[in-house]
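Table S2 (continued). Query chain:
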Amino acid sequence: MLPFLSSMYTCSFKILIRNDGITNNNVSEAEIKQQMLLQSARQCVIVADGSNVGRIELAFLYDIHEIDLLILDNSADPATWNAWRECGLQVMLAQ
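Corresponding output:
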């Protein structure tokens, strides 16, 4: 196995971002993905559509402090992602 493959966990799911973390609409899927991240990844990188910022779904996935990098497009509310930056979260905007 290549060394970098074991250091990052990637998955796809409908993701919604609220002020304190990441939520998902499928509880059982969320539990599995939480465990996979905790057991196999050294970094948590979230790539999300900015229109999902501020929306909330049923299942809580990750606290905002468990995320190493959040990548959003420019449709996200600047006040929200600037507040996350002030809390120490690394936020990148995709062009």
